[in-house]
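chain below, 281 aa
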Amino acid sequence: MTPPAPDPSGAGPDRRISRKTLLRAAIAAGAAAPLLTTGTVALARDSRSAGTSLTPTPLCDDGDGPTHEQMEGPYFKPNSPLRTDLVTPGSPGTPLTVSGYVFGRNCVPLSAVLLDFWQADASGAYDMAGYAFRGHQFTDATGAFVLRTIVPGLYPGRTRHIHVKVQAPGEPVLTTQLYFPGEPRNGTDALFDPALLMNVRDSGGRRQAAFDFVLDVAGVPGPGEPTDPPTEPPGGTWAPGRAYAAGDRVTYDGTAYRCLQAHTSMSGWEPPRVPALWGRA
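prediction:
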């Protein structure tokens, strides 16, 4: 008997497709989100085994709870530029694209989530004088993000990794690191966490990776969506839709704030709600 063809989604007789996986597939099909170009949905982690039934609750219980935290390390710098492409012309290294979604714990994709990435260059060095291989971005309306960069180099004591800070509007900052499968140093790096492995594949001299973040927040409609009844903005000089530079000062609801990181403002990212972008003046 001819064995059945493998399921391209990665689900076989020993795996179930989780609600979050199906949601991710539906989003990708309907919104053309920037995922891997294999025609299938890239999974950040394996689904649960067939012997375990899915809970009927609205919780995002797919065998992967909120994304694990990790230390910031000594090389973080605030005020990274707003960009999704960290590669400048002439930069050596293997091109890498990382894509995925940010979900709340109830499987709702989260829009307008801040992701701030930083990493070593191809030789394993961090740019502390400027902002090479540093940049922040926001998830789109479907909760998707995409990062274009290079495979980071190695330096003593660590395996290959990418740092990131993730913050939903008005919520705490998640600081973590993403790892590459099959790296020899994964077994000797004391910080390595297999729950933070990306799915990575080679593609014509490039590498493509996927990872989905799950934040320990309730998924709610994203900022910018209408409220019922409509809310009136409080008084002050801050306004949505403006490009703010680091050091700019505004007032909001009677309090003065100083911009910590250049960004374009949007509803839902008012100064009191985003300490990563605004500090009290």
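The chain has a mean pLDDT of 78. Helices lie at 19-31.
thats it, cya
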